[in-house]
């Protein structure tokens, strides 16, 4: 059949019409879509630096709290070129956990983690995915399980004995330093075993080797807490090189890497001598456990066949486990000395717990019944959470929160400290008042959104049991063995409560107190 000229024109007109209608419809849809995509509120920002100028570098936490007070509990800031969502409300944190936990389970790829944690192959800074899942499983089942934590009871007891003996010889105790070396020694002995090895000073934690390792780890902590230009201005690594930050990271990494190579080599030698260790018997430290898993992975294939991943997990245990526990001990002692009523009540509880035989140390088996001690620590974690902004997260896909669109790869900060001192949730929020938890079932292990010092969801801290027993045992014995007072006629109000900066928040000025032995 022939098509007439008229029919042809009509056909092309129809096509044109369809094209025009589709074009208009698509445009409307695109506009609607754009109109629907709403950014969370946030302050005005400058080109290039974004909102960085709004952060007081000495008090970033306080700056974030005041920005949230001004702009709302869900704000979008730009740190350099990095969009960063700040969550400062219990209800929004709960919405995220219950509806979008997976979306918020990423971690940003930060320079220090890339360099010091073997290309972010540990747990805390590993991007969400199979590697992280496998590493976390090992942490939960093998390294930080209740059984493993119990197996280090002797280590903790011996270190507490040493701590108490050291303080008996001091006229003034620097509790910031003492609690850090106590936590360091417990973590080192749990991770590496009882001896450091002769290449590292005299091979003992209390000696030169211990001091050297302590300094090395402090530098690692400080690099993690430091400001790295490339994390806010990708492509500008050269500035970090120029200002020496890269050099510091390289040096710290080389020293740490050599140290762990040596530790692994020595453990391997011992394991070869004692074949039974490979089957998992007599595992005395975490290096043994990791080496067993590494050997099995090399033989049969699987996770941890790469020795760098073993080293990354070991560095992680140190950086995640020592500072946080010692900061909790120091802040709790600070609050107690400022609150003599609470201090006295707690000492009475400890006295009763010893069943009349008070001239001895409190044992781990007695911690369970110390209700008031638990309330005191909970209150300290509420007022001074050691990791107040948690570890930064990153969205792995786009999602909608409170009607706002949050794109994939947005960095996310949860302001746990703002929530745990929110006057809408807590009565007298800035007062140290442990009795607030009496009969109030507030869990702090990531199930309750009023208080989550250990984070929540898939990425919450797997070291809670490991940390809590260290903190409880140290505090119970510090308070049971000594009466504490403030030196040089200072008053409680004179104690400087300023916070140092870093991922873990320490007391800026060391806590120095007079310790009078009770027995
Ligand atoms: C008082 C002591 C501690 C506090 C306050 C604390 C706090 C935290 C916080 C806030 C996070 C981030 C959670 C999140 O993103 O939701 C975290 C993660 C982590 N913590 Fe702890 N922590 C403590 C002790 C420990 C200890 C003793 C260890 C191990 C020895 C440990 C190992 C880890 C690891 C591996 C992660 C990363 C989890 C992941 O990304 O999957 N922490 N911790």
Summarize the structure in words.
By secondary structure, the chain is an alpha+beta fold. It has helices at 5-36, 60-71, 90-100, 111-116, 130-143, 146-151, 153-168, 175-192, 208-225, 237-242, 245-273, 286-300, 307-338, 340-353, 371-383, 416-420, 464-481, and strands at 74-79, 82-87, 172-174, 393-394, 399-401, 404-406, 411-414, 482-485, 512-517. The strands form three sheets. It has a four-stranded mixed beta sheet with strand order 1-2-7-4, with helices on one face. It has a three-stranded antiparallel beta sheet with strand order 3-9-8. A hairpin with a 2-residue loop joins strand 5 and strand 6 (404-406). It contains 17 helices and nine strands. The protein is globular and about 115 Å long. The model has no long low-confidence stretch (mean pLDDT 90). The structure holds protoporphyrin IX containing FE. The site of protoporphyrin IX containing FE has 28 residues, from helix 5, helix 13 and helix 17.
